[in-house]
Structure formats: C-alpha cells, structure tokens
Write a structure and sequence with these properties.
Strand content: 15-25%
Largest sheet: 7 strands, mixed
CATH superfamily of one domain: LCP protein
CATH topology of one domain: Aminopeptidase
Low-confidence stretches: 1-9, 327-344
Shape: globular
Structural class: alpha+beta
Order of helices and strands: EHHHEHEEEEHEHEEEEHHHEHEEEHE
Number of helices: 11
CATH class of one domain: Alpha Beta
Length: 344
C-alpha cells in the first residue's frame, strides 16, 4: 500500500544521522565528517552478485539499502545472543522516478544463511558473520541486490532519545510492557527507556506480535528524526555525535550521505511500504519460524526490482522440505500473539 511518510529522516538516523547535522550546522562540518569516518565500515565486496554493474550514489543511480537494528544489551551478551539483527528493513530508492519501496522482514523468517549452508532465522546471520553475511543472506531470501547497508545498536537509540530530550509518538496499539502503559491513538512522550519498551514489545496482549513491533520501530525512528532536525543546541549535537560513533556503522561515505540529501530526498517523500506475509511454524529444533507466502513475496520482490530498474523474476517453487512439528497461519493485519517461550 502507498502511504506518505517522512522516511528520509529515518534513513538519516540509521545510516549515520550525521548528514542532517552537517546541513543544519555547517560550523560543525569538521566534527561531523570525523564522525562519518569513524562509523564508515566496508564489507569487502565491490558490488552485489545480483548486479551486472556496480551502482553509485555519486552517479545518482537507483540504489538498494539494508538497514539493521542490532540488539546487544547486557542480557544478550550474557546469554550469547548479542548481535542479532532484530530489525531488518530494505529500501530501494530511485531518484530518477522519485519513488521508493520499503520492505520490513520479520526477524524470525526462515532463511538460508549465506556462507554457512544452513537454514536459520534471518536475524542470526548478523550474529554469525556481521553485516556482510546479513546482507548476503537478505539477498538470498528476497533475491534482490543490496548495494549499501547501515546498522544501529538498538541500545544506542535509548541514549539518542535521552540526548534530544525525549520523543512524542502516537501509539499504534493498547498494551503494557515493563511497567509502561500504551494506549492506541494516544500521543505519548517517551524517554529513552520507555521508547525501547515501546519498540521491543510484541508478545504482550494487544501488542500485535512482530508486525505491530515493526510499525512501532518505524514510529520511534521517525519521531527521533523529527526531533533531531529541530535541535538548536550545539552542545547536544556534540553529545549526539559521540553517541553515533559508538552505535552506528555503515558503508555509506560522508560525501555519499551529502549526495543522498541533495539528490535523493524527493524520492523519499512517498514510499510504498510492505511487510512479508506468511505463516508460523515450529520445526524439529523446537523453535518457531516465520515462513513467507511465496506469491506475496514474489509480488513484493518484483515491485522492489522494478523500482531499481531491474527485470521482474518468476514465481519460485518451494521445493524445500520443512522439518515440521506444528503449523499456525499468520495474517498480516490479524496476527495472533506468539506467547510461547520459543518465539524468540
């Protein structure tokens, strides 16, 4: 479905946040450029294997970006679960057509993990092999090229939100989590800790499962971006840049970030947004997985490819034999709560 959203600032947040600061605060340009260099991390490949030719932001090509939100809090560090990408969003941006397509991928999606010859939850790819393995695993799942990536530590969002004095969001659901109550349609001011509770909730009654959480993640990031571009305190910008340096990595350069602002912003005023639909399934490892509907995935895939100026792909046949224990149908708009302990 098409829906106007201010997603350009979302991308600014997730691929560095620094470009917005550079535009609004020219006197801080040197500091911003330093931060951009600190967070810049390549993934050792010239181009996607699904591209015939390399594309470039500098040349104003249509591009595909993968955004990862990685949760590395102390609890996960203690249990060995740190580094999983619990937020996975891909965005195709076509500056010539002024169009963009955004796809949210559920973290529990059953997928081949690139370079490991295994099928696991898609969020495990980042844990196993960092951004490179995560990018290539997303490419295998969706059969679309990924040209750039950006990763933010979700715990860093808490610090960012506190730095800007909190954010205002309208809750998409009525639920309670970690002592915080949220009411659908109600405008709520959130500090960093409250915002994390808002975007991490999914199994609570009324929270809407993974699909509800994915929408809340977008709401929080957009609200944070709105607050960032309205900041007037130079001291806060200094604190913000320090937070970014410890919580964001990307292979987008400082010059490319500035080009995104000057030449790609019109493409991001209107975004066609998708979420994968499918069904839930327990496999023989006693873990719950999300299995995408192939016809719907093919439609999303081809819409995404078309926006990149690439050829549509035929519907694939699902010949993989899933080691099934139990099946549960999942609807996008009426998802049942996953309350079992394995729905991690």
């Amino acid at each position: 479905m098409k829906k106007r959203i201010w997603i350009f600032t979302l991308i600014i947040v997730l691929i560095g946040l620094v470009a917005a600061a550079a535009v609004a605060y020219q006197t801080l340009n040197t500091k911003v450029e330093k931060t951009a260099k600190v967070i810049h991390t390549n993934i050792s490949r010239e181009k996607s294997d699904l591209r015939k030719e390399q594309v470039s932001i500098k040349d104003h090509d249509a591009i595909s970006i993968a955004l990862f939100g990685v949760d590395s809090n102390t609890t996960r560090l203690a249990t060995g679960d740190a580094g999983r990408s619990d937020t996975i969003i891909i965005i195709s941006i076509n500056p010539a057509k002024n169009t963009s397509v955004m796809v949210s991928i559920p973290r529990d999606t059953y997928s081949e993990i690139a370079g490991r010859n295994t099928h696991e939850k898609i969020n495990r790819a980042y844990n196993h092999g960092g951004a490179k393995m995560a990018v290539e695993s997303v490419e295998k799942l969706m059969n679309v090229p990924i040209d750039y990536y950006a990763t933010i530590n979700m715990d860093g969002i808490e610090e960012l939100i506190d730095t800007v004095g909190g954010i205002d969001v309208v809750s998409n659901a009525t639920f309670s989590y970690e002592g915080h109550d949220f009411v659908q349609g109600e405008l709520t001011h959130l500090n960093g800790k409250e915002a994390l509770s808002f975007i991490r909730s999914r199994k609570q009654v009324g929270a809407g499962g993974d699909f509800g959480r994915q929408e809340r993640q977008q709401l929080v990031i957009q609200a944070l971006a709105d607050k960032l571009v309205s900041m007037s305190s130079v001291s806060k910008i200094d604190s913000l840049l320090k937070t970014i340096e410890g919580n964001v990595v990307t292979d987008v350069t400082f010059d490319d970030l500035k080009t995104l602002i000057s030449n790609y912003s019109e493409s991001l005023n209107t975004v066609e947004r998708f979420q994968l639909t499918g069904y839930g399934q327990f496999l023989n490892d006693n873990l719950w997985y999300f299995i995408p509907n192939l016809e719907e995935k093919n439609h999303i895939q081809n819409t995404y490819l078309e926006n990149l100026g690439l050829e549509a792909q035929p519907l694939e046949n699902d010949t993989y034999e899933y080691p099934t224990i139990e099946t549960q149908t999942i609807e996008t708009q009426a998802i049942e709560e996953q309350t079992n302990e394995f729905a991690y």
